[in-house]
Amino acid sequence: MFKMITCRQASHLLSERQDRPLGWGERASLRLHLALCAPCVRAAEQIEFLRRAMARYVGRDPGPGQGPPD
Amino acid sequence: MVQLRNATHAEDVVQETLLAALQGAAAFQGNSSVRTWLTGILKHKIMDHFRRQSREAPLEGLEDELSVDDFDGLFRANGHVANTVPAPSWGDPEAAFSQERFFAVLERCMSRLPKNTARAFHMREVLGMGTEEICKELGITATNCWVLLYRARMSLRECLQTDWFGGAAA
């Protein structure tokens, strides 16, 4: 069952999909919304960017010859 | 140490880490770098610290942090975005990650998060805990946990947009 969701609802799903598996209906609603909404596609990119940044922040290696900043 | 928000606590945890490191030195196989090894111990110590803290003091001010009304500026009353023109792209993540200053800005943004939000976010993204585990540690429902993480991500997005991508990086 497709349900048109708002950008606010889409933003919650974009965050929650990093914390829990979305249900089939949620995934479908989100996909449909993203197909129609450029600003939410950008939001999705930024939330993914943040996740990658955090992964790097935690595990990032200092470059060769560089000490850790801390 | 941004996640401890308290210099004394941070020192305690570092001391405990060094102690644990010395105690564990005999067990150190030398097959991972000392930095990785110490970081691993530190993470566990921070987690212990959070556990102790949430046992000692129940979450304060949680109610305030569970409202996401402060992101209303992003959305119109009908729930759609206020600005229908997408913001400029943040570009290649690697380009930002290659700059040490990016992570300093990210840290500063994290340090501005409200207490419980910061705690949940660090448990999730720094310590890599699952939401179920976080809910248990913090004694909150899964829904509240997702709201805290949502709030953290939305705030960090805004902060990075302003402090890094908004020209400050130049």
Describe the 3D structure.
- The complex is a heterodimer of chains A (70) and B (170).
- The longest helix of chain A is centred in the last third of the chain and has 22 residues, at 38-59.
- Chain A is 64% helix and 0% strand.
- Residues 60-70 of chain A have low confidence and may be disordered.
- Chain A is mainly α and 70 residues long.
- Chain A has one domain.
- With 170 residues, chain B is an all-alpha fold.
- Chain B has two domains: 1-57, no CATH class; 61-170, Orthogonal Bundle (Arc Repressor Mutant, subunit A).
- In chain B, α1 (7-24) crosses α2 (34-56) and α5 (100-111) crosses α8.
- The longest helix of chain B has 24 residues, at 142-165.
- The model of chain B has no long low-confidence stretch (mean pLDDT 80).
Give the helix level of chain B as a range of percent: 55-70%
Mean of residue pLDDT values of chain B: 80
The backbone outline of chain A, from C-alpha atoms, is globular
Give the total of domains of chain A. Answer: 1
DSSP summary: helix tally of chain B: 8
Largest sheet of chain B: none
CATH architecture of the largest domain in chain B: Orthogonal Bundle
Poorly predicted ranges of chain A (pLDDT <50, ≥5 residues)?
60-70
Structural class of chain B: mainly alpha
Q: How much of the sequence of chain A is in beta strands? A: under 5%
| N- to C-terminal distance of chain A | 51 Å
Q: Uncertain regions of chain B: pLDDT < 50 for 5+ in a row?
A: none
> How would you spell out the order of helices and strands of chain A?
HHH
Rg for CA atoms of chain B: 19 Å
Tell how many strands the DSSP assignment of chain A holds.
0
- CATH level-1 class of the largest domain in chain B: Mainly Alpha
Helix content of chain A: 55-70%
Q: What summary fits the major beta sheet of chain A? A: none
Mean pLDDT value of chain A:
83
Using the CA coordinates, give the radius of gyration of chain A.
17 Å
The geometry of chain B reads as globular
